[in-house]
What does this fold into?
Amino acid sequence: MKKQELIYIVVSFLAMCLGPFRSSAQEGNLSDSDKEALLILARKTLVQYLKDGNLPHVDESGLSKNLRENGACFVTLMKKGVGLRGCIGIFERTDPLYRSVMGRAIAAALQDSRFPAVRFDELKDIKLDISVLTEPQKLEFTSADTLLKKLRPLKDGVILKTRFGSSTFLPQVWEQLPDKEQFLYHLCRKHGAPGMIWKEEPEKIEVQIYQAIVFGEEEYGGPEHVK
It folds into this structure.
């Protein structure tokens, strides 16, 4: 498969608009107010950082315990009429969740190598999505068939490691690639591995799974009071 075709598939998936508080995993401890706080903070971070290179001041005492605990996340930027404008995530739980969201928002805007840096004047046409991730767990399997049986479409995000590198698909990707074999094929191709290496060399690959709580802004440009 050509690189352009693979990019098109990934972009097509991410171009799907997620609802304001849509979830692909159990809600856990994140409340609706936690989600709203993270979305507002991500938006404020982008507005201020793209405007003057500074970060907004955050009063940790006003944040819930959930947001102050270390967490992992992805931030996705969608542009009106275009689709995907940036998507960067982190699995390491080295910072409080709110800081991880701030950092990934900036990274999605400025460090996604597939796109030019987002400009301040684009923010009015951009909508934010946040995926808060659970801790990845190693998936044990003894054959390609066992691997297929253990995968849970729409529930699990997957990290696939081969001798060529590693890549991940968030749980939402199952909506565009519901066939398990096709899912794994494109996940291999994402990091440059042969598409069927998961089937030909199952003993030489490693698979981890995780879940995600997914939520996003309702409107392009975000809340009026943080523009």
